[in-house]
Structures are given as C-alpha cells and as structure tokens.
Input
Amino acid sequence: MTEKPLLQVENLVKYFPIRAGLLQRQVGSIHAVDGISFKVNKGETFGLVGESGCGKSTAGRTILRLYEPTSGKISFDGHSIENLSGKELRSVRTRMQMIFQDPYASLNPRMTIREIVAEAAVDHGKISWKESEEFAARLLKLVNLNPIFVRRYPHEFSGGQRQRIGIARAIAINPEFIICDEPISALDVSVQAQIINLLEELQEQLGITYLFIAHDLAMVRHTSNRVGVMYLGKIVELAECDELFQHPSHPYTKALLSAVPSRKAGARKQRILTTGDVPSPANPPSGCRFHTRCPFAMPRCTTEEPQWREVSPGHFLACHLT
Output
C-alpha cells in the first residue's frame, strides 16, 4: 500500500435547502455533511460507519459528485474534482463507481442484464454494442453468475443475484475506486458473507480501492483497513481498524462498540447507554454535537466544538474528554 492517497477529502460540506411557502423560499438547511476530512490510500478499504441519518451515504454521493458539494475540497489521484464539469467530470467518473444499497431499486426493470452491465462501457466507447453481449457475459461470470442470464430482466433474480449484477455494472469500466453504500444491508444474512467475499476477491484481482459505508460494525471490522466514525454530519473518530476496536476513545464510538454482541461464550461487556434521540440535522446542537446524548458531557461540551486532532499515530479524535 502506498502512502500517496488515491482520495483526499478536506472539510467537505453538503447542505440541503429547506424551502417553505408559496414562493418556496429557503428557510433553513439540513446539515447532512458538515466539514469532514479523511483520505483513502490506494488498495485499501476505508470504512465509514454511523447510525442511519448521520450523513455517510450523502458523503459518498457528494464525493462522486452525484450531489454537488456546498464547500470543501475533493482530490482524486492528486487532482481536485469538486469544480469539474462536462468532459472532465465524465473522464473522472470512468475511474470512480458506486454500488448502491438497494439491489431492487438500483436496476432499471425495463433493461436487460446485458444493457445494464454493458451500458457504461458502450457509452464511454470502450466496446461496441455488438460486443456488449459477450462483454456482459464475461462480467457475470466474474461475479459468479451464469453468463446465459444476459438476456433476462432484473425481476427474474433474487436480491443477492441483483446485487452481484450491480457489482458487475460497477466494475464494467475498470474503475480504480468504488464506493460501497451499505451493499449488504438489504440482503439476507445468508447472502451477506457471499457478497463481502466477492468484493474482497475483486479487490485482490483488480486492485480496487473501496470506501465501504455501513452501520454494521462487525462487518466493517472484517472488511476495512481504517475506519471513520460519523455522527450527525461530522467524523468524530478515525483510526486503523484494530486500533479503533481495541482502543476506542470517543464516547459515541464506545457506545456503538458496547452494543456489538461478543463472540466469546460467557463474555460480558459494560454497556454505554446514550440518552434521547439523534437531534435533527436541520438544527444541530452547539458545541459537540454528541453532548445531548453523551453520558460524560461537561459544560464545555455544550458551547465549544472539540478540535480534530491526532491523539496517537494515525488515530484522530474530536472530543474534550481525551
């Protein structure tokens, strides 16, 4: 693994306007992503975890420019992409792809598997339409599906098979970087491990770099090299995977890990319980955003936002307690 990051995100912000009234004037903003920074090295899997609604999926879509960033910097392979448009953005997108969460909603039901899988390669001029059937068949074989399925439609497949088709579509133009947006959360438990194993095999064969978005901490521990923990639009802790799981420092990280069942028979964990509900991203709390639910909150936490700092080599944290 090289030290030069393939992806670098600096103070990325994405706000969605709240509009009201007959004139649809903006009356506020949803702070979906509010100043996050991290890097993803070539060949690694970076895990981004947090509760539903914390902004992790929005972050992934903003990095790919499916959403326009409100502010911040996105660098891919040393080049800024946050202001690219037209042909330049199209060129970058051949190197970056996404695997979506819902395998039922992400495939066009009116298109055959051949059309779905080969569409991007045809559009970018990598193959002709005449070559697309053989091309799609090879990709289906690569994701462990029968090549004869190329002429079928999405409704003829199970959720796990559809997700394999989504993976085949994502790798069709040989991308260097893929964002996996909770790719197994909509699947049966029996199928989840198969999809994870497939992603790992493809990473090894094709040299792909992953940003793996999830809320399942056990799965993130299995798949990721480094992990960032996200809460209400901000990353509160980031470290090497083993370091984060063995020495969590932020109260939110500790609370998440304390809720993960132990694999050891008879082992007991001290639960760290949070109070109340997650605040609205339209009106986030002042100071530390976690202070309204944190069992260790101090008066300082309510008014002063904690600084993002390196507490040990490669271990970053935003908390007043440590």
About this structure: The longest strand covers residues 25-41.
